[in-house]
Specification:
Blueprint (H helix, E strand, L loop, with lengths): L10 H17 L8 E2 L1 H8 L3 H13 L3 E4 L3 E4 L4 H25 L2 H19 L3 H19 L4 H18 L8 H18 L2 H28 L1
Antiparallel strand pairs: 1-3, 2-3
Amino acid sequence: MATQAPNEPPEENLADHAYHVIEARIVQVKYPPQHALSEQQLSQDLGISRTPIREALRRLAEDKLVQILPRRGAFVTDVEVKQYLHLLDLRKQVEWFAAARAAKRQTLVQRERMKVLIEELRAGISAPDQAVFVFADKAYKDLIIEASQNPFIGGILTPMHAHSRRFWYYHRDHWADDEAEQAIAGHLGVMEAVVTGSEEAVTEAIQTLFEYLEGFAHRVLHKEHTL
C-alpha cells in the first residue's frame, strides 16, 4: 500500500477535490455525454492517485452523472429532455421546501451573505460571464441549503442542481439572445424572496423560476421533435 506524503491532504479531501473538478467539467460539457473517464488519465490530470479518483467516480455514479460499466469503465451519462422534466418535477417541490425553510431559519450572517450574492448576480445581468454565473448560482443554492438547517436537503438537491446546470449548458444552441438574463432573473427572484423571510414570496418566486426552467426544457423538446 502506498504511503501518504507528510504534506499531502487526507485521501477523503483528495476525493472531494476530484469529485468537484470532474463534476464541473461534466456540467460545463468539457466531458460530453458518453465521454470515457479514464482513472489513469484523470489521475495524471489532477496530480493525485487513482484511489480518490475511483471514489469520486463512484459518487458521481450515485448522482447519475456517470455510469460505471463492468469491464468497460466509467462514462458520462446522456442528457435527456424527458428525464430532465421528471427531475424538475421533483426538484420544484424540494427546492420550495428548502427556500421556505431558509426564509424562516436563516441567520443574520446568512442573510447578509445572500445579499452579497444578489449583488453579484445582478451585476451579471448586464455582463453575464457564464462560468461566473454558474458558480455564483451554485453558491446561492448551497447557501439556501445551509440556511434551511435541514441536514438531509443537500444530499437531495445538490445532484439535481448539477443535472440542471449541465442541461442548460448542453443546450446552449437553444439559448435566446437574453437567455442568461432570463435565468439570472429567475434565480434572483428566489434569493430576494428568501431574504424577505416571506414564505408567500418564496412560493411565488419558485413558481416563476420553474415556469422558466420548464419552458426552456419544452422549447428544447419541441426543437428536437421538429428537426
